[in-house]
Amino acid sequence: MSEHSLSRIAAALERLSPPPPPAADPLAHPAYVWREGTLVAARAFRPLALELLTGVDRQKAALVENMRRLAAGLPAHDVLLWGARGTGKSSLVKSAVGALQADGAALALVEVAPDALAALPHLFDLVAEAPRAFALFVDDLGFEEDGAGARTLRSLLEGGAEARPDNARLHVTANRRHIVTREFGEAERAVNARDVLDDRLALADRFGLSLGFHAIDQTSYLAMVEAYARARGLPFEAADAIAWATGRGARSGRVAWQYVVELAGREGRTL
Fold first, then answer.
1. What Pfam families does the record tag this protein with (predicted)?
2. Which of 68, 193, 39, 63 is nearest to 130 (CA)?
3. For position 190, what pLDDT does the model report?
4. Domain 31-213's class?
5. Mind spelling out the 3-state secondary structure of the chain?
6. CB 106, CB 71: distance < 8 Å
7. Across the strands, what pairs with 136?
């Protein structure tokens, strides 16, 4: 086989299975993505200003304080943020990190996909010796049953023979308070249902800090819209904001932000 043919085959194989991205310096960037077992710098980390997140003052204070302890090398909890969709769970994690970074805290965000939990021990090894703290962010996590993923997370939280590094803590968002569905399959109904339920609830219990987020009323929704719009100098009418939410069948921080994006587009403004 000619050298040209071998080169073509090698190029085709590389296209099918590209090499992993180069590893990023764990001290050089404000946020990262854990991708294919490699720490990759986030392309654009622009969290909302913490003060723009309204209606979640209690959750905000608790999360920021816990992250502050983490960044200072003090004991800190793994955090579960649970509740209704679009209520600000993910935004609060990113905004809290951004706010503490602005205050000079040695803290970075690392986003981890829910299907990459098994690779977390490798990530722990990479960051353990870094003179910096890491908020490991797992967004929108949920298990339909107590399978391998749930058992992996439980093991990571309770610690095995090798302890997790003190400078890394998990920050998990979930729509369900207990992460794992409470419905039983046929096999589980054949055993003691109470035992199965207790085992599933034990996963959520392993988070030292659990913060609930709930559906908001119209007044809170309009306060969110006003905060976003005022920060960007955008005019709005309450009736129009309400109509926008009605058309989507929900009032939430996410819908409020989507409405502000719509306002900016109408005004020919960038965000």
1. DUF815
2. 39
3. 47
4. alpha beta
5. CCHHHHHHHHHHHHHHCCCCCCCCCCCCCCEEEEECCEEEECCCCCCCCHHHCCCCHHHHHHHHHHHHHHHCCCCCCCEEEEECCCCCHHHHHHHHHHHHHHCCCCEEEEEECHHHHHHHHHHHHHHCCCCCEEEEEECCCCECCCCHHHHHHHHHHHCCCCCCCCCEEEEEEECCCCCECCCCCHHHHCCCHHHHHHHHHHHHHCCCEEEEECCCCHHHHHHHHHHHHHHCCCCCCHHHHHHHHHHHCCCCHHHHHHHHHHHHHHHCCCC
6. yes
7. 110, 170
User: In this predicted structure, what is the pLDDT of residue 186?
Assistant: 52
Q: Which residues on neighbouring strands pair with residue 31, listed in sequence order?
A: 109
What is the four-CA torsion angle of 222, 223, 226, 228, rounded to 10 degrees? -110
> Which pLDDT tens digit goes with each residue over 26-64?
999 999 999 989 999 998 899 999 998 988 999 999 999
Distance, first Cα to last Cα, the chain: 56
* Length of the chain as a residue count: 271
Q: Which residues pair with 135 in a beta bridge?
A: 109, 169
Positions of the chain with pLDDT under 50: 184, 187-197
The answer for residues whose C-beta is within 8 angstroms of residue 72's C-beta and 6 or more apart is 105
Whether the predicted model's global pTM rises above the 0.70 cut: yes
Q: Which residue has the tokens 């719509």?
A: 262
Quick: pLDDT tens for 186-222. Answer: 544 444 444 444 555 567 788 999 999 988 889 989 9
Q: Assign residue 32 a region (left: φ > 0; alpha: ψ between -120 and 50; beta: otherwise).
A: beta
